[in-house]
Amino acid sequence: MENAAYGWVTPALSYLAACLGALVALRSTRWALLTEGRARRNWLTFASVSLGGGIWTMHFIAIIGFAVSGAEVHFDILMTVLSLIVAILVVGAGIFAVGYSRRPQIAVLGGGLGTGLGVAVMHYLGMAAMRVPGDITYDASIVGASVAIAVFAATAALWATLNIRGTRAVLAASPVMGVAVCAMHYTGMTAVSVHLNGIHTASAEGVPAMKFVFPLAVGFGMYVFVSALAFAAAPSKPNAQQSAFLGRAAPLQANSYPARR
């Protein structure tokens, strides 16, 4: 059993997906805090899809590199899609909690806990979608460690949405968040043990992971295109009312918000 059957390709691409999702989510949430009404809701929704989709994409690209000697790994399509929906919903719950809470710093803690647990559920739901001719078991202590990392990563992500300002800061924070997300996945994967049933044939259920590559590539390409359009439509600078909100939401003073984005 190995987690990088294609060498460095899947770990590198999965890390890139996690970083891109974090980058777009951070900027989108900051822009949401500069707006009101429908515009805020739209930016928070886009941030939720970006971060949740980025985490899920990281997970699935990485899992394509998962291989079991003597057997072909297949995936249940319905459960795989369900894991994507779970990722977006739980991340969205945390981001909206921060975006609308009157006490955002407290919302970060509660939202980080809930979102982290949800991300862990997404990961293990995706793992449950795997079909191999044998039994899959988990080391409980390592599973616990991966859940703790997920909660930490989610809390850090929500904290960053309130405290990271300016293009350079976002560019610096996104790779760090990418590391945290990847750490959760690969820690969780070390908890996995596969015991084949002696019949070393391809699993009859589900489809091979490589069957997901084309739709995943198309979806990821569309996401990058839409993200570029969203960046072009971003707000320019906060007005007085928005600055007041930012003053409540983050420890930095609103008038220190850098003019350059």
Features:
261 residues, mainly alpha, 69% helix, disordered C terminus
Describe the structure.
Helix content is 69%, strand content 6%. The chain has 261 residues and is mainly alpha-helical. It has one domain (10-195, 210-241). The strands form two sheets. It has a three-stranded antiparallel β-sheet. A two-stranded antiparallel sheet has the order 3-4. The radius of gyration is 19 Å and the shape is globular. The N and C termini lie far apart (45 Å). Mean pLDDT is 79; it is low at 238-246 and 248-261.
Report low-confidence residues grouped into runs of 5 or more: 238-246, 248-261
- Taking all Cα atoms into account, the compactness measure Rg is 19 Å
- The count of domains is 1
Biggest sheet layout:
3 strands, antiparallel
Strand content: 5-15%
Q: Mean of residue pLDDT?
A: 79
Quickly give the structural class: mainly alpha
Strand order of the largest sheet: 2-1-5
Query: Can you count the beta strands?
Result: 5
Beginning-to-end CA distance, first to last residue: 45 Å
What pattern of helices and strands is seen along the backbone? Answer: HHEHHEEHHEEHH
Q: What's the helical proportion of residues? A: 55-70%
